[in-house]
Amino acid sequence: MYSLLRWQDVADIIIMSFLVYQLYSWFKHTKAFQVVIGLSSLGVVYLVTKNLGFFMTSWILQELGTAIFVLIIVIFQTEIRQALYRISPLRGFFGRQDSSPTFDFSELCAAIFSLAASRTGAILVFQRTEPIDEYITNGVSLDSSVNGHLLGCIFKDGSPLHDGALIIRNGRIVTASCHLPLSTSSAIPQHFGTRHRAGLGLAERSDAAVVIVSEERGEVSLALSQTLEKIDTAEGLSARLESLLQLPTREEVRTTMMKRIFGNLWPKLVTVVLVFICWLIITARQGEIITVTAPVQFRNSPETLFLRSASAEEVELQLKIFSSLIQLPKEGELAAEIDLSKARVGVNKILFRKEDFTLPSGVVITRINPSSIRVIMEKKVRKIVRVSPRLTGTLPAGLHLKSVTVVPSEVMLEGPDSVMARIESVRTEEIRLPDLDRNSTVSRKLEVPAHLKAISHDAVVVKIHLGK
Q1: I need a labelling partner for 239 at 20 to 30 A (CA). Which of 1, 29, 339, 355 fits?
Q2: Dihedrals φ, ψ of 419, to 5°?
């Protein structure tokens, strides 16, 4: 364990604390959160039983873990999609309103409380930054300005559009008589009916502000996130809606940011502590040392030079692991990639660098043995040499070799200067004379010596004529 935290560890803890707290604040009153608590309890039981040696219990919980993970994705796909949308960096660009609403908040709220006084039920959805179309079903499309008289006509008992929610987007009525998803929260009081559950259901899934007018009690409520707030006056509702729907000033943005950072401090501190404890558990194996062997590979060799030999074909690495979650590299998964772009003719001493190895995140090299490698480079040359057929065996009785023709009779070879200086010819693969007819044409590959390669041809045609 390190005596001091790295800056990467501090950033790791801060990022995870932020994500965990955001998930908690979004889903703390939902069924998904209760499921997460239950799964966390099973995870704790699994860790305890595994460390105590309860093989059957830990094995069953481990096997169930994979299936439960898949079920969570299927069952809570809406919540997962909502969370991914909320953390999207482009959310503010694609989801924001074009401008502040231009309708009269006082007139609208007075009309809403007029509906409450007459015990006329209503649901008004004010879309803010997050899209809500995926949560809305049915509905009749409208395109109208927001005013109190139209509101009374729409929700009047017996009107074709009175049953359902009214959607207001960017200061205009866009849809009426919409069906909203019902909330499954157990915290909703029993005396609230389907209208309140529908309004709170949409508020739980988005940042929309939903105004609900109770038909039974003549009350006006505002559903926002997981909360349902009773509003007593039209002025109070107007102030709340105006603060929620108007674009904030720079000073308001600064004030809101400070509240978000320092507000609700205790849950945030608990989240940081829990994440830090998890980090300690995860890094329990930090500092473990392993030794692996990596083969040496060469790249970027100059076109005019040839790699004649190297002092080592593999190198021994001593690795340090930072976390128990890191997959340990196995034999053959690591390789030393040596760059020869700056090599010169003769003996080159190249030091191994940590950059020559591709390692998983959280693994560092503490020692390399040997620390360097000697590479001998020679000038690469080309030479034209003749081709000699390699004939073996003896001819049948009564036959003799009249002529042998090789096409082409010469080939070009490429290789190091020291080897090419000793090469005058190159042979073909074996041609057995007992297997030939009187006039035979065979194709044979060239037997090119090590460190050399044929440039123009790698096989030739040999024409053999036998006579009596």
Answers
A1: 29
A2: -80, -40
Tokens linked to 299: 């790249």
More confident residue, 461 or 58: 461
Burial 253-291 (b: 16+ CB within 10 A, else e): eeeeeeeeeeeeeeebeebbeebeeebeeebeebeeeee
User: Cα(444)–Cα(446) distance, rounded to whole angstroms?
Assistant: 7
Burial 19-34, CB ≥16 within 10 A → b, else e: ebbebebbbebbebbe
- Domains located in the chain, CATH noted: 7-91+255-282 (no CATH), 105-246 (3.40.1700.10), 285-378 (2.170.120.30), 382-467 (2.170.120.40)
- Residue at token pair 């190198």: 315
Q: How far apart are CA 201 and CA 199, in angstroms?
A: 5
pLDDT tens digit sequence for 79-124:
666 666 666 555 554 444 445 566 788 888 999 999 989 898 899 9
- Helices 7-27, 77-86: axis angle to 10 degrees equals 130
**C-alpha–C-alpha distance, residues 167 and 329, integer Å:** 56
**Total residue length of the chain:** 468
CA dist., res. 354 & res. 351, Å (int): 10
Structure confidence at residue 124 (pLDDT): 93
